[in-house]
TrEMBL record:
Residues 4-67 form the HTH asnC-type domain. Keywords: DNA-binding, Transcription, Transcription regulation. One of its GO terms (molecular function) is sequence-specific DNA binding. It holds the Pfam family HTH_24. GO terms for biological process: regulation of DNA-templated transcription; response to amino acid. InterPro entries: ArsR-like_HTH, AsnC-type_HTH_dom, Dimeric_a/b-barrel, Tscrpt_reg_AsnC-like, Tscrpt_reg_AsnC/Lrp_C, WH-like_DNA-bd_sf, WH_DNA-bd_sf. This is Transcriptional regulator, AsnC family. It comes from Candidatus Paraburkholderia kirkii UZHbot1.
Length: 154
């Protein structure tokens, strides 16, 4: 990986804001002509600065009114059990993010659901039945103050 210059950072900031920005507009925004801009974009993709592109969907439009953060605890810290837990959650679409954390819990999950009833059923029938899980503590989001706006650029 090479050192990012001012233009590389400007390209990354612009596409983080709008991943569908055409190269012509991107080039204009960062002060380059199209060909060098396209080359830089391709290089940034190739060097792994850009993991991929995706759309940010509306929870409201999809009627996912509950966002919860669930702290998951294990009583036994066995690598095989943790690996199995991590593999199984990959296929659960309601879990939108999962972090292995330090502290009193082992994992922090972000979960979405239509309503509290659906979330409760998910906790009872899915989350608590996963390998290794002995306790789940939920925190409900009352209001999203800041949505994932991308990573800070040095």
């Amino acid at each position: 990986m090479i050192e990012l210059d001012r233009i590389d950072r400007a390209i990354l900031a612009a596409i983080q804001q709008d991943g569908r920005l055409p190269v012509a507009k991107l080039a204009e925004r960062v002060g380059l002509s199209e060909t060098p801009c396209a080359r830089r974009l391709k290089r940034l993709e190739g060097e792994g600065y850009i993991d991929g592109y995706r759309a940010m969907l509306s929870r409201k439009a999809l009627q996912l009114g509950v966002v919860a953060f669930a702290q998951v605890r294990f009583s036994v810290h066995d690598r095989a059990v943790s690996d199995r837990f991590e593999r199984e959650i990959q296929g659960i679409s309601r879990i939108v993010s999962c972090h292995n954390i330090s502290g009193t819990a082992d994992y922090l999950l972000q979960v979405v659901a239509r309503d509290l009833d659906e979330y409760g059923i998910f906790i009872r029938d899915v989350l608590r039945t996963l390998p290794g899980v002995t306790a789940v503590e939920s925190m409900l989001s009352l209001r999203e103050v800041k949505r994932d706006g991308g990573l800070p650029l040095p």
